[in-house]
Structure formats: structure tokens, C-alpha cells
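To: structure desk
From: M.T.
Subject: fold request, one chain
Message: Could you run this one when you get a chance? Sequence is below, nothing fancy, just the single chain.
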Amino acid sequence: MQYDIIAEKTFDHYQSVSLKDKIYLKARYKLCPYFKILDDLIPNSGTIVDWGCGFGFFSLYMKISQFKRQITGVEIDKRKIKVITQVTKEYSDFSIKHIDEVDIEHNTVDVVLLMEVSYYLTCQSYSKLLEFFNKILKENGLLVVLNTYKKKITGNIILQ
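Reply: Done. C-alpha cells follow.
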């Protein structure tokens, strides 16, 4: 599938959100050009955790792109959790968790995504989070840490 076609199918799920949130989602898609890169990098199947998933647009994009992916979105904002729960209700292997309710078994995750989140964290909480990711990732799991700055993508792709 072409990336923009996948994006349009993903946007279709967000018809019930406010105009403000629709504009935000469209802007994020246009300003954060990593969708094409990551969709090719992430395995076509397996368990993926999107930590700090926001409205879940990229999580849902990944699911629509490859239906064999099992997605867990983790978010702190209850309003965003409500939105993503509504837009993903048709997908039985797509779950959303509040950050305080996360219970993921060790060595069960193929990919962890930390996109546009790390700059919100203190050094100590970031370190603890990376330790947690190390525990939940399978051997040879993939950890992707990504942030955009002034139209440039910076990030680390860490293979275990």
C-alpha cells in the first residue's frame, strides 16, 4: 500500500474527533515525516508497544498497514486515551493502556516505539524507562527512540 493511502484510511477513523484534533493530527502527519521510514523498518507482524502514543494515529497507521501487528498504545492523557479507544474499537488485537496501568510481561515485545516523548522526561525517569523496555523486549527486539527538531529527524534505533 502507498503511504498516503494508508494515512487516509487512518484519518477516516478520526471522523468523530473535534476539528481542532483533526487539524492537529493532519499537521503532525505532515510535519513528522518518519511514517515511511518506520513502517518499512518495523516488522510486518509481532507485538509493538507505542509508548506515549498520543491520539494513536501512528499506532493505528501501523495496524492498518499490516494487520498482523499486535499494537499496545500507552498514554498518560485520559482524553487522548478516550479518543483512541473509540477509533480503534474494531481491532481486537489493539489495546490502549494508561501509563499507570501498564502490565507487560518480560520478553514479550518485538518493538518499542518512543516517539516525540523523550524530551518530556527527566534523565532519571528516562533511564528507568529504558531499563523497563530492556526487560519487556524479546531478544533481538527493536527499540526506536525518535524526536524531530526543526524538520530534521534525530533518533536512535537500538537493536538488542
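Reply (cont.): Helices lie at 3-12, 19-31, 35-41, 57-65, 78-87, 123-136. Let me know if you need anything else for the meeting.
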